[in-house]
């Protein structure tokens, strides 16, 4: 659990300094990509955003011009290349990072490590320099490794705040909500499944035993758990080499960003997220997180697990530990 360290008044002060009197300044790093474009579109419609700053290595001005025609309060600016990253990030309240290469058929999230690790580390350097107080939302896979990389980079810069760093695991929750609602004949918009662990394969653990009113058979639990864990493979295969889960990931990223902005405005909000945690012996873990004006306000435990969930939990801990340590080692070797 973390205590609140920043008041709502100080958040308002940062908003004023950012030049976003009508809302927060939010940057999207990787805004011209497959996730970045739909994510930016969704964020343009967020009434809590006063300045939407788009950053990428190519094509950002065109994306910004396109979005700027949408009649919502957020001012949109486009910034391209390393020489403009300072202007893109300066004064940001939130930086969302979907930058990186997408998965292709047969690739795991871990296969993306070598390319995406370097991209995320460089962006973390820029955040540490230009907006060290920003809340940082990591979408770039493998999240189990890129979040620790970001933490280590910011530690080296002397600006790390665990309350402000999040691995966005919301897509696992959205898939769980969709698949569980289908199985129960419920409205998925009114379903909210807690998903713990990490954000890759078997490290994703939906707590189906805690879904109110559900009475799944062992076979249903096994099938639903596997589909939630490997739902991304359905999309990669269906796109036949043309991409991975971009639209659903954009929706998940927009959901988490929206929840965080509401919390920064003083609203009580909770989401599952991969954060620094003492819930397990691992340095990072995803459980339900209560958000506040400082970012992470309180971290929940995961409650009582069923026998099947406990077995999955015990199996995934060493895998998650190795992926976290891989990120830490990468950052140390830079």
Describe, in short, the structure shown.
About 45% of the residues lie in helices and about 20% in strands. It is α/β, with parallel strands linked by helices and about 325 residues long.
Question: Topology as H/E string?
Answer: HEHEHEHEHEHEHEEHHHEEEH
Structural class: alpha/beta
> What is the correct CATH architecture of the largest domain?
3-Layer(aba) Sandwich
The dominant shape is: globular
Low-confidence spans: 1-21
User: Termini, distance in Å?
Assistant: 31 Å
Roughly what fraction of the amino acids lie in strands? 15-25%
**Helical residues, percent:** 40-55%
Oligomer: single chain
What is the domain total for the residues? 2
User: What's the total count of β strands?
Assistant: 11
How would you explain this protein's 3D organization?
- It is built from 11 helices and 11 strands.
- The protein is of the alpha/beta class and 334 residues long.
- It folds into 2 domains: 8-168, NAD(P)-binding Rossmann-like Domain (Rossmann fold), CATH 3.40.50.720; 170-249 and 266-324, Lactate dehydrogenase/glycoside hydrolase, family 4, C-terminal (L-2-Hydroxyisocaproate Dehydrogenase, Chain A, domain 2, Alpha-Beta Complex), CATH 3.90.110.
- The strands form 3 sheets. The chain has a 6-stranded parallel β-sheet, with helices on both faces.
- Helix 6 packs across helix 11, helix 7 packs antiparallel against helix 8 (218-229) and helix 7 (170-184) packs across helix 10.
- The protein is globular, with a radius of gyration of 19 Å.
- The chain starts with 7 loop residues before the first helix and ends with a helix.
- Mean pLDDT is 92; it is low at 1-21.
